[in-house]
TrEMBL record, chains A, B:
It comes from Chenopodium quinoa. The record marks H233 as: Important for catalytic activity. Its cofactor is Co(2+); thiamine diphosphate; Mg(2+). Gene3D superfamilies: 3.40.50.920, 3.40.50.970. This is transketolase.
Length: 634, 634
């Protein structure tokens, strides 16, 4: 209720959008970072004429399959740009949206034709301000000089636990100035409409800095007994207090009733929005004529349609190709894809030279070079992930990637989950994926991370074994825009393995070698990533001993689980119970494939600081262990 | 190398410690938040006379089982207070250490006897500064006025990816001022020893604010060709450059050789340290005489010895006790424990009234009331976790707890992992543990979280079903100081179940009811938390149909897995393959208990916004589903 004036001014006076086409490319973006106040946004979308929020939808607030869930979900409700609710995510997404605009504007605008030109607005609350992810993202927004990002800080002094004074006494204005933002304070946010309007004008005039408009409001404004109280933060007012509030505000209408004069006032947005889009469409038609190459690229970003033949750019490998770390092979893929995919861009959290994520043909995206495609996130994993989610959700053709050490997915897990939930097809490039990184020790060595993402819905967790599988993982990642992908990549050198294939990767689990007949091997060995080589070597030895051995790569469990029962049976026949898996991570979950009589070799403890080979040996991740387990089973 | 002057001055001139007893209670604490520079700390510990780092240890840097791993590990090397390496964790731990001191000083110091009185020092780098977790923790440090926290910011302008200018141009001094810190700038950190000394004096004089001493240094100072370059950030200098550096600095000695005069200079710390401790011991002996009650409490915090009979304080329940949400039952435990355990304190990330974590007999720990035990973290989950790790590692008798919604463990996963790795026995109180929270929808509903922590080493992941199991979980958590515990607790009301027991919880998985004979039921139903009731009800119905049904609670997988094979067989006989599990979360991992012929009922998708009962029904988490699965198996 305290945010109503900001919301009203934005949707009724300031923002450019077409309610009948919520996906119009050049619309202004709005993010309600304080997502628990979503009823306000639903009401505004309804007033503005979006078909996605009818009066019926408003009445079905927080009901099963309604388009008005308890927090805004972009995949439920057209008009909602990003999913918010977990605090701080929305403002970080907004930084990504504003970055996307600045980048596209720099790449595609021409002196005679400004084809990309929109603002990104956000409303954030005290909670968003306290979260580290917002600090990370806002520090970058200041660094990048995202002048068209305008964030309203709803400064209501109340959080769930009471006055914000009990935990939040920092000087927010000063902090944002330190981050390179322009800061404006609207002291009377409850009904200071003109001050808010003036602040927005001032913010737009400052072109080289993002703006924070601190709007001091009263939570639950209008409620005679509960305003300025923490009891309205997450709870409903109650029927009696709603009545008192209606009376206090002089609002005589029935619940959900929109009076005719209000309807009429807002109805113009339908025609105005259609006109805006139509005008832009004409401009774009002209742009297509004058700048056909750029137009083709921009169109691909707008529509998400991949340029034909893009897959051919992916590098190919044979068993004779030189062995290499999959992080290096990944860089070959990234550099190949960036040439053919106009919306491909990304970077690392200060580990570009370790994650191998630099795009060699591009410079750094910076304040004065926003047309470039290497993003430099600094040591800000969480902000990085959420910014990339915002980029991905800006336009269907954006394919952002971001990188750090795999273990530091712990720092950005919330943003990865938000990517999965909100169907943002970000590619998470995660190197140094096991004890194989060696000396840095247990703080840097992932153990439970593969399992933890295999358990997460709507994420592809890839652990490619060589160049072919790395290319295959990128292929699937690019093709599946609604499912984020995580690639766990090795620091250490690995051989190109015979039998790996891109088609295999697409199936998630597949046979890379087999000397058995009739789908009836003596034993099935399975592995992923750097341990697939160990499985393959163990198979060689066992075959010399006369065993019929099948080796299976489980590069993506999610993809394998989605295959037909007959395909699964062709890889893992039910009758073959002698099965051994090896992976330099927890054995948690492997039972699914090794079955009740099989053996899973893994690491169910933390790692250690030592040379990688030594740790592998000490923790029993060896060919000998596989052979011994196999022999005990067949 | 740039940090050497700060380190030298701290260990040689400023800090009070006893090298022969690294655990002396009243020592100054030092945290190298920029943990990759740990060789400096090892060298200083060695010079200062700590037995934990011998010349041999220095030579075994980053080798298997050495006491000098690649990042500082408190559990490997006495003298290292906390495990650092993942950036930002150390400074947040330091905030916890300083909070612990301020709290104990306020509780136990007397006008005539200052028995608690130490400083907490930290060195952090640019990376720590960029991480959101450090912002969260430092905002709280300013809010709490932790005057005895003195942090050095090694401002060397270089990160792994090059100049910090590529991603980090915020005004750090101004930001810290905004956070309520005192800020001092030492412009010549390479050899400005006197400026560093003066800064420390100034910092100590400011008693109501933490101090940031920004020390501008040159990375790799002394190296003629590689100083001020990102190439020395994470990589060794190389033999040739080491030689050049030695020559440049006029250091003619062999590697690892400590010249006699240096040895002699540092040797005084052994006697001085012993004297410091002995002096304090005398003072404490007097304190014991004068203030015996306080002394007993403080002693329990110092030693970690639990007051005898503390377990009796835990509430008990019978099936006749009123049903309640486990988050409320948890609050009864928290309030009972805080009375009997002197080192028990904690709080929530702005959800105290939802997590039910307030200690009713205490006020809020604040700047002017630091003797109180309710910590108010604001919406800062990550900082909260890392601060609690610092508290836990300050003294063995501290038992900090911290709370948020279970889904937001995603925000603090790195700190939970650090608790597990560094053996910090924090209790993580995680409420709203499933779709049972209802309307807030999928951003707030955990799905994969139970599995993701079951996969993590050295964590107890509890999901208690009622009051008895909640009390049992707290009992195990308090008794296991080297293993952090996570309690997943319900928002919704649950009945007190017949058959649950504290002894059962200690075994992790146990039979709560059984009408079979000879360890041979027709079917075994298993569940956790709110779904154990569903399993119990399904059993009732199946028994009416004449089936012999066993119901098993799997409240903690880790504890069950640690039991003997015979115990496990007594709960899950190998011959009984008809098994059904039910849990309102991912089925990932359940195969371990349901076996290859069993069925796991769970949720392998994201949740939804709707009333809880509706979601349970729509997603099939029902008694009917259990009965159907059971009937299909037996």
């Amino acid at each position: 209720m305290g945010c109503a004036p900001m919301g009203h001014i934005l949707y009724d006076e300031v923002m450019r959008y077409n309610p009948k086409n919520p996906y119009w490319f050049n619309r202004d973006r709005f993010v309600l970072s304080a997502g628990h106040g979503c009823m306000l946004q639903y009401a505004l979308l309804h007033l503005a004429g979006y078909d996605s929020v009818t009066e019926e939808d408003l009445k079905n607030f927080r009901q099963w399959e309604s388009r008005t869930p308890g927090h805004p979900e972009n995949f439920e409700t057209p008009g909602i740009e990003v999913t918010t609710g977990p605090l701080g995510q929305g403002i970080a997404n907004a930084v990504g949206l504003a970055l996307a605009e600045k980048h596209l504007a720099a790449r595609f605008n021409k002196p005679d034709m400004e084809i990309v030109d929109h603002y990104t607005y956000a409303i954030l609350g005290d909670g968003c301000q306290m979260e580290g992810v917002s600090q990370e993202a806002c520090s970058l927004a200041g660094h990048w000089g995202l002048g068209k990002l305008i964030a309203f800080y709803d400064d209501n002094h109340i959080s769930i636990d009471g006055s914000t004074d009990i935990a939040f006494t920092e000087d927010v204005d000063k902090r944002f100035e330190a981050l390179g933002w322009h800061v404006i304070w609207v002291k009377n946010g409850n009904n200071g409409y003109d001050e808010i309007r003036a602040a927005i004008r001032e913010a737009k005039a400052v072109k080289d800095k993002p703006t924070l408009i601190k709007v001091t409001t009263t939570i639950g404004y209008g409620s005679p007994n509960k305003s300025n109280s923490y009891s309205v933060h997450g709870s409903a007012l109650g029927a009696k207090e709603v009545e008192a509030t209606r009376s206090n505000l002089g609002w005589p209408y029935e619940p959900f009733h929109v009076p005719e004069d209000v309807k009429k006032h807002w109805s113009r947005h339908t025609s105005e929005g259609a006109a805006l889009e139509s005008e832009w469409n004409s401009k774009f038609a002209e742009y297509v004529k004058k700048y056909s190459d750029e137009a083709a690229e921009l169109k691909s970003i707008i529509t998400g349609e991949l340029p034909s033949g893009w897959e051919k750019a992916l590098p190919t490998y044979t068993p004779e190709s030189p062995g290499d770390a999959t992080r290096n092979l990944s860089q070959q893929c990234l550099n190949a894809l960036a040439i053919v995919l106009p919306g491909f861009l990304g970077g690392s959290a200060d580990l570009a030279s370790s994650n191998m994520t630099l795009l060699k043909m591009f410079g750094n995206f910076q304040k004065d070079t926003p047309e470039e495609r290497n993003l430099r996130f600094g040591v800000r994993e969480h902000g990085m992930g959420s910014i990339c989610n915002g980029i991905a959700l800006h336009s269907p053709g954006f394919i952002p990637y971001c990188a750090t050490f795999f273990v530091f997915t712990d720092y950005m897990r919330a943003s990865i989950r938000m990517a999965a939930l909100s169907q943002a097809g970000v590619i998470f490039v995660m190197t140094h994926d096991s004890i194989g990184l060696g000396e840095d020790g247990p703080t840097h060595q992932p153990i439970e991370h593969l399992a933890s993402f295999r358990a997460m819905p709507n994420v592809f967790m890839f652990r490619p074994a060589d160049g072919t599988e790395t290319a295959g993982a990128y292929r699937v990642a690019v093709l599946n825009k609604k499912t984020p992908s995580i690639l766990a990549l090795s620091r250490q050198k690995l051989p190109q393995l015979p039998g790996t294939s891109i088609e295999g990767v697409e199936k998630g689990g597949y046979i890379i070698s087999d000397n058995s007949k009739g789908n009836n091997p003596d034993v099935i060995l399975m592995g992923t990533g750097s341990e697939l080589e160990i499985a393959a070597k163990a198979a060689d030895d066992l075959r010399k001993d006369g065993k019929a051995v099948r080796v299976v790569s489980f590069v993506s469990w999610e993809l394998f689980d989605a295959q037909s029962e007959s395909y699964k049976e062709s890889v893992l026949p039910a009758d073959v119970t002698a099965r051994v898996s090896i992976e330099a991570g927890t054995t948690f979950g492997w039972l699914k494939y090794v079955g009740c009589k099989g053996k899973a070799i893994g690491i169910d403890r933390f790692g250690a600081s030592a040379p990688a080979g030594k740790i592998y040996k000490e923790l029993g991740i060896t060919k000998e262990a596989v052979i011994e387990a196999a022999k005990s089973l067949c």
